[in-house]
Amino acid sequence: MMDSKQLSALLEAQQEVISKIALAQPLSACLESICRLIEKILDDPQAKSSILLLDGNQLRHGAAPSLPDDYCAAVDGVQIGPCVGSCGTAVFRKERVVVTDLEHDPLWADYKDLALSFALRACWSNPIFSSAGEVLGSFAIYYLEPCTPSDVHIELINRFTHLSSLAIEKSLSSRREAELTSRLRHGIEKFAAFTSVMPDLALILAEDGTYVDVYGADESLLYQPIKSILGKKITDILPAVSSRAVMDVIAKAIATNEVQVFEYELDVAKGECTFEGRITAINHYLPEEPDVRHVLWMARDITGRKSAEKQIEMLAFFDPLTSLPNRRYLIERLQWLIDKAQRNKLSGALLYLDLDDFKRINDSLGHSVGDELLVNVAQRLKPVLRTSDTIARIGGDEFVIILETLEKDIDTLSEEASQVAQKIIEAFSKTFDIKNGKYKIGVSIGISVIHGEDITADEALKRADTAMYRSKNVGGSHFTFFDPALQRILDHRLEIEQGIIQSIKDNQFCAYFQPQMGPDNEVIGAEALIRWLHPKKGVISPLDFIPVAEQFGLITRLQDIVLRESCALINLLIENELVDDSFSVAINISGSQFSNPSLQQDLLDTIREYKLSPGRIKLEITESMLIDNIDLTVKQMIELKSSGFRFSIDDFGTGYSSLTYLQTFPIDELKIDKSFVDNIHTGEVGSGIVDAIIAMSRHLNFNVIAEGVEHKEQADILLTRNVKAMQGYYFARPMPADIFVNWLRQLQTL
Ligand code: C2E
Ligand code: CA
Ligand code: CA
């Protein structure tokens, strides 16, 4: 047992050591004072304490203020092992080793000479354990003579071993901390250096989109200054589209824990920029808010790269002079269209344009004039096309146009193509104003149609090119189809068009009149039917030239002829007192005539010239025209009706009219189609429908007339069905006006 003096000395010693430890005195100083203090308590000149520190497998000098320096130096670095004196063995065994007489103890066999040479005779050693149970070193008491420790010795040694452990652990931990701090500082410095030159922006956002931190040298990449965004939500800062996009990416990055790469455009301080964003989730960004997840959003300005890419694409696919697509682009697009056409989804036409006489202008006036002309040509071509069409410049003065269409019918396709070609040739009829003059230039066009054939883009182009040469050969400013059959159709149409124009001038068109009969075989009106009296081909059917006249915009001129002749006839009949006030003439109005906004005015102007009332004219429109565009049709009909015209629905029964919608139109008369009349006397088909039409007309208060009546039986049956008006070969064929007058006279003298 320690006496009270020893105990208070011990407490004092503990105090002193602990305060040294707490004040972070160097380890050597702490250990040295531990040694001195135990020696002081032991109060025995023979006792000398020693502290060794374990470093790997070696024991290093810690403190031993009373041992000779040479001994300490000799022991320093000794390897621990099962038989290495007291300390080396204690540390090795991890237990106390008490050697009372080292001269005769086998543990000291290798070291006794050294110890004895310094007069050391006994050594008791304790391993020093850390709080985690690892061995940190040894604490030992040497004696200058063989000696066995008492309980007091053991207790003191235990206490001072513990103090040594405290001192060593503390020093180790402060060393680790210092290391950590310096590494941290180092890291922060590196980070600051890195972010101060970083061309990108690094933004830290909370998962709800709140800006937490912003790093990066270039603030001009921010949508708003750092100060004004920190702590705010992205949804309050960025435009809705952008913030929604970023929020989606954030959600994805958090959900998947994977880096999300995305591109976006933003009008930042620097201007409109394209960014590549990378967003990754980071955990524990704010230690004080461990539950909030954050993301790191790296934003890289890739505007330059993007415009370079565009530039490269431009160079690869566009003609720098006119900015039109080049040959390469065209071939790709064309191949795409051909592939599509084979799968029947699209069809199209290829127009190959070559300027007439461009070479001469270019050679004689110089390339700058030539270039300017080409740019002007490109500008003039663009408005002719629809946005879905492609126009490319594929060579010096060669342009190619691809027309894409959903039309599957080859006639419609070639019709469209020839219309575009016609427009182009017209567009070239105006002169080009180039810096030093005005130039007239023509264009030769070759057309090849793409309609599901298995050909390559090059072949298609070659065909159009071949056709273009044919246009050149006939003197330019002309278009030619590659396909001879299409060309024949085209030639035929052109021939008819030219023929119509010439024939109108030559008065080859006139109206024939077919009488419309009342129930008592009296004439109640006539239908005017146009005829083309061709000097060589004889009488040409309107079915052959009306569609062409419509296409070429010549129909109103024919309408005018029919109306004038009808008015003239009415006046003639009135003058000759051959008809009464109810006599009217029906004229046929086709779809394109009907949709002409000036129809009403044109009709009225002519009728007034003849001093007739519009009630004398019945307009025949077909049932299908009613259905096409109901609202517009009703409007147009109401207007015409209000100025006095009457309406007869031609070819009635062949369409899909339903009772309910018929009453929305201001109709005066239904004209039962010939196909129903044809069968009426055979008793099978037709009569049911005729009955239905009659019933409906009565209900809606429409007049009924039957057309195409060829036989007496038909007329008789119709009469029994209460059809009071009829028209057909049975009564009379359509006749020229003078013959009609004579016929009527004859009828009335009967
Ligand atoms: P549509 O209006 O149905 O005219 C009736 C057609 O049937 C006329 O042929 C007429 O000659 C013929 N026809 C009359 N009675 C009989 C008959 O008993 N038997 C037979 N087999 N046929 C008869 P057309 O004159 O050749 O006219 C054909 C079509 O051309 C007309 O059909 C009409 O749609 C159109 N059309 C005629 N003239 C004009 C016109 O001036 N302007 C417009 N836009 N179209 C016209
Ligand atoms: Ca008719
Ligand atoms: Ca008809």
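^ calcium ion complex. The two ends are 167 Å apart (CA to CA). The mean pLDDT is 91.
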